[in-house]
């Protein structure tokens, strides 16, 4: 399934990029993140606890940042598995300056398997978008007390 979204931040691309590259900030912004530890250059081991409908579970996985073009773009790849099944995803993340703000565009795909996949693509797609929205809302709070995603935050299925 495909997911996409655009988020506007009241900060220059350099500042938004710095937050997106900071493991402590990333881990604090990921909903349900229990651990987020370095496992190599731009690679992290993560543990997430996520509840979807009647299925709650813990996922152990790896997050990798690649194709880094500082202050402009990168690719995020994540794979995780747990009792509820597996999740694989990849996203292209692009930062665009827009006057005094930065627009972050995200376009990605998510695959699931096992018991979690039986919940249906519609529910999984909705939860994926919700987690992405929460991540970027939290990232916006990390910028400054008065900064964050604008009310014009958008996302598409």
Describe the fold and architecture.
Mean pLDDT is 86; it is low at 146-157. With 157 residues, the chain is of the alpha+beta class. It has one domain (2-156): START domain (Alpha-D-Glucose-1,6-Bisphosphate, Chain A, domain 4), CATH 3.30.530. The chain is globular. Strand 3 and strand 4 (55-69) form a beta hairpin. It has 3 helices and 8 strands, in the order βααββββββαβ. An 8-stranded antiparallel β-sheet has the order 2-3-4-5-6-7-1-8, with helices on one face.
CATH superfamily: START domain
Query: In angstroms, what is the radius of gyration?
Result: 15 Å
SSE succession: EHHEEEEEEHE
Quaternary: single chain
Give the overall shape: globular
Strand order of the biggest β-sheet: 2-3-4-5-6-7-1-8
CATH topology: Alpha-D-Glucose-1,6-Bisphosphate, Chain A, domain 4
Question: What is this structure's SSE topology?
Answer:
Elements: E1 2-9, H1 13-20, H2 23-29, E2 33-40, E3 43-52, E4 55-69, E5 73-82, E6 85-98, E7 101-113, H3 121-143, E8 154-156
Helix pairs in contact: 2-3
Quick overview:
It is built from three helices and eight strands.
Keywords:
disordered C terminus; alpha+beta; 24% helix; 157 residues; 8-stranded antiparallel β-sheet; 3 helices
